[in-house]
Write a structure and sequence with these properties.
With 375 residues, the protein is of the alpha+beta class. It contains 13 helices and nine strands.
């Protein structure tokens, strides 16, 4: 009887040791996979950056698991039109506080004209229009309309309010200092006194073209070093996480904001450019470059940096979660294509990385990689 009990105890210890050993191997294998996977992704991102001859800033956060991918994540980049997200968020916060309304109607005419992205000015320059702030919000985010964005900024009493709201949310590196029109004046070396003389878009473009190209170049060089209206990829990605978690706005405002961002018509070749067609992306793009033909041909413009960006929330298939991603790119390429393609490649690499991690970890948990027989 004692011999039998001793044999059972010995067998039990063997099984226990095997289980402990198996668990150790399982954890060690999982950690090795995670490290190898992270290193491989870092190498991919570095290769994409090098091939595109650009400087990239990236933060991607797997929201449900709080897994983070970073590359130059605390470096400051010019926001361009991604600044429209903090502006929209500040406006919706005022709506949540009952200080404004989505249904409030404002009048728009040539006083609201801003050159660049968007086409809303075609409507109100011909004839004054009445339009709700909700419609203006949609124009600003879906079409990246500059006139709509500056009108929305005016509705929240200017950049100071937006910056104050970002600070309140804990984002000290999201700097909102100027309207889009003011940024255009600065990069084109045009005096801010012109702001007192509202004019249609065509007139603004003529004003910009009058600036000697050498003066434009010097203005652009100052602009490249300017910290105004910049952000870090980390702060912008974390802002997206707060938005998704209903920590920045009310639930109804969050739903509205994400629904509008899912309809974004600009930058389709960026974050979502190489993702599977069924993957949902709520995003906002940014572009700041040189489009004037004479300026492009000017030798002094060849070494100036252009800026391209995309920020958003990727919904993974089959309820696997969400990725908040912010990608900022600057390079000297005249064409925007290499920068947009780099964003698409990074987005796909990060998407595949998190999808693969999910699959591999599930295999480990299910015991597919290590099978312990009870003998």
């Amino acid at each position: 009887m004692k011999i039998k009990l001793f044999a059972q105890c010995l067998n039990h210890l063997r099984i226990k040791n095997r289980l402990q050993c198996g668990f150790f191997v399982l954890m060690f294998s999982a950690n090795c996979f995670a490290i190898n996977s992270d290193n491989e992704l870092s190498r991919k991102i570095a290769a994409i950056e090098k091939k595109s001859h650009s400087v990239m800033g990236i933060t991607a956060i797997y929201i449900e698991k709080n897994k983070i991918v970073e590359h130059n994540s605390n470096k400051h980049f010019f926001m361009a039109s991604t600044i429209k997200l903090p502006i929209a968020l500040a406006f919706l916060h005022r709506v949540d506080q009952k200080q404004d309304s989505l249904n409030r109607v404002v009048k728009m005419d040539s006083h609201n004209s801003v050159p660049g992205s968007g086409s809303l000015y075609h409507l109100f320059e011909k004839k004054q229009i009445s339009i709700s702030l909700q419609q203006i919000l949609k124009y600003a985010l879906i079409n990246s309309d500059n006139s709509a964005s500056d009108t929305l900024l005016h509705a929240v009493n200017g950049p100071g309010y937006v910056k104050k709201r970002m600070d309140a949310l804990g984002f000290k590196n999201i700097f909102v200092n100027r309207s889009i029109l003011e940024m255009l004046l600065d990069t084109n070396h045009v005096d801010h006194a012109f702001l007192k003389r509202p004019q249609p878009v065509v007139a603004w473009e003529k004003t910009f073209h009058k600036t000697p190209l050498n003066e434009k170049k010097l203005a652009w060089q100052r602009f490249e070093k300017d910290t105004r209206d910049t952000t870090t990829p980390n702060d912008m990605a974390q802002l997206l996480v707060k938005i998704y978690k209903n920590q920045a706005l009310s639930e109804s405002s969050t739903k509205l904001l994400i629904k509008i961002m899912e309809q974004c018509r600009t930058g389709r070749s960026r974050i979502r450019g190489m993702l599977p067609p069924n993957v949902k992306v709520a995003h906002k793009t940014g572009t700041w470059g040189i489009t004037e033909p004479q300026y492009i041909r000017y030798p002094g413009s060849k070494k100036l940096y252009r800026f391209t960006s995309d920020i958003g929330i990727i919904t993974l298939p089959k309820n696997k979660g969400h990725i908040a991603i912010a990608v900022y790119v600057k390079s000297q390429s005249v064409s925007d294509y290499p920068r947009s393609r780099a964003i698409a490649q990074v987005s796909r690499a990060i998407y595949d990385h998190f999808i693969m991690k999910n699959q591999e970890l599930r295999k480990y948990k299910n015991g597919s990689y290590y099978n312990i027989k009870n003998t």
